[in-house]
Amino acid sequence: MIQMKEVYKKYPNGIMAANGFDVKIQAGEFVYVVGPSGAGKSTFIKMMYREEKPTKGTINVNGIDIAKLKTNRVPYLRRNIGVVFQDFKLLNKLTVFENVAFALEVIEEEPKVIKQKVMEVLDLVGLKHKARMMPDELSGGEQQRVSIARSIVNSPKVVIADEPTGNLDPETSWEIMNLFEEINSRGTTIIMATHNREIVNTIRHRVIAIENGVIVRDEQRGDYGYES
């Protein structure tokens, strides 16, 4: 599904955020990405959906070397990648339905298909009854559910989540994790950067640990390994 080979990323300020990443992620895996703040986790995540380009190396997603991908082809790449952010990134002037539908409208899907798909994913995340509400009428957990619905409405093969529970209380964080587990059980690959020690140690999956731009640990059913 995803392969990084000898990937380096050096920022203009001299920081080496990726120092020779070599990793393979298979279809259907659930992978946590952990490490101290500033270790390179976000760079690792962002390079997968071409928010950042590597300085050197190859990154293959679904057989496409995205490091060499032309800028005008990036939107096509992202049709098969769902992205969930810590701060939700919802469009505040659009309803819940419209926020989720937006991902389908940009690829010019038919209105009938849009309505069906949007209501299906809103039902999955438990927000079908709030389709006409505005984001500021929702709790933080509900906003994150909308963000997740938006990320999966295209039926992507992989969902990349960058600290998706970072702004949520513990109870809501568990609800969001259960939702990710459900999505993963349907065959979608999940890659999640997180600082949540309890979640990583309780819901065991593969753990990739990054420190100073280096992958220092890659374990199946690993633990968090850091003080939170």
Automatic annotation (TrEMBL):
GO molecular function terms listed in the Swiss-Prot or TrEMBL record: ATP binding; ATP hydrolysis activity; transmembrane transporter activity
A cellular component annotation (GO) from this entry: plasma membrane
Membrane topology type: Peripheral membrane protein
According to its UniProt entry, one GO biological process term is: cell division
Ranges for domain ABC transporter come to: 2-228
Q: What is its main location?
A: membrane
Pfam families (alphabetical): ABC_tran (PF00005)
Q: Which PROSITE patterns match?
A: ABC_TRANSPORTER_1, ABC_TRANSPORTER_2
Cite the InterPro entries for this sequence.
AAA+_ATPase, ABC_transporter-like_ATP-bd, ABC_transporter-like_CS, ABC_transpr_LolD-like, Cell_div_FtsE, P-loop_NTPase
Reply yes or no: does the keyword Cell wall biogenesis/degradation apply: no
Q: Which UniProt keywords apply?
A: ATP-binding, Cell cycle, Cell division, Cell membrane, Membrane, Nucleotide-binding, Transport
Localization (cell):
Cell membrane
Subunit structure of this chain's protein: Homodimer. Forms a membrane-associated complex with FtsX.
> Any idea what job this protein has?
Part of the ABC transporter FtsEX involved in cellular division.
Q: Which family does it belong to?
A: Belongs to the ABC transporter superfamily.
Which PANTHER family would you find in this protein's record? CELL DIVISION ATP-BINDING PROTEIN FTSE, IMPORT ATP-BINDING PROTEIN
Record protein name field: Cell division ATP-binding protein FtsE
Organism, as annotated: Jeotgalibacillus alimentarius
